[in-house]
Fold:
Amino acid sequence: MTEESLSQPRPPVAPSLAHPIPLWVLLGVFAALMVLTFITVAATWVNLGDWNLWIAMGIATVKAALVALYFMHLRYDSPFNALLLVSALVFVALFLGLTMLDTHEYQPQVINRPPAGSEAPR
Amino acid sequence: MTDHDPNLAHHFDTPAQQYAAGKLGVWVFLVSEILFFSALFCAYAVYRANHPAIFFDGHLFLDSELGAINTCILLLSSLTMAWAVHAAQLGQQRTLVACIGVTIVCAVVFLGIKTVEYSQKWEHGLVPGADFTPDMHYVQEKLDHHGHGAETSEELNARLLNLRTFFGIYFLMTGLHAFHVIAGVGVLVWLFVRAWKGAYGAHYFNPVDFVGLYWHLVDLIWIYLFPLLYLIH
Structure:
């Protein structure tokens, strides 16, 4: 099996199929993840209003990207796997985005509306 | 005559095809898991957008320190899982077994901390669903402790009214996540036993890789859950 594979180039996996990520890369990514976790917590000590949420989400996305690219090997994999992940995220964005558009129409109480006809139409 | 690789299933032509197909299959499964959780994230987004004050109150009951520790534990478990894949691919048998073992330990510690958190809630009546009967003294104490106490008991009741929604979302999201951790522990134990018996090495490491992908997804979901639930300001 090994002799056959060595004679032909194979994208993207090596003849032995293994592409081990170097240990220093794994440890480096872990260190970066811990630092980013600390920054996420530290960011809550500063009050930036609405921005706090988006900063936290931004940092979480950077962490997620590190996990996906390195721990999950997407950086070295067939691009189709990465495409699957990205398209899942696109659909999640569509899901949440379109639902949130509706959110602006949300009325916490209907009872407060004046009786129909007593006011000019909306 | 070529040997038939004992790890090569008959419906695949080559080990490379088997590995690529297996990986693709796991990624499709992960996509379904992401969409599965996205429904709960959507519920979170809608309720938080409409009731930011309730979410602010709600997070005062959650222990951010325990949440942060749990985040670090899961990140460590992701490292050891990725290390296990690395070890399997290089035929490092002892490292492989040790790494899977540490991953399991981290997962169990995570579940232990979640149990502590849940039992703290249970004690004070902050349970999901119809039995939500919070202990008023505890609630006022918690709000006061963070400098956001209610001035009057009317205010306290008003703030309490929809707190149940926050806790419903909290228990559902962390509960579903914890369920995935438990399932992951089960699979990891299976993987541990197989690795111990020497089933994996440079010639065959697919299951270690695929279980690893699932485990990283569990970590990814927590990476988002932690700031959304515990760090609301």
Notes: The two ends of chain B are 68 Å apart (CA to CA).
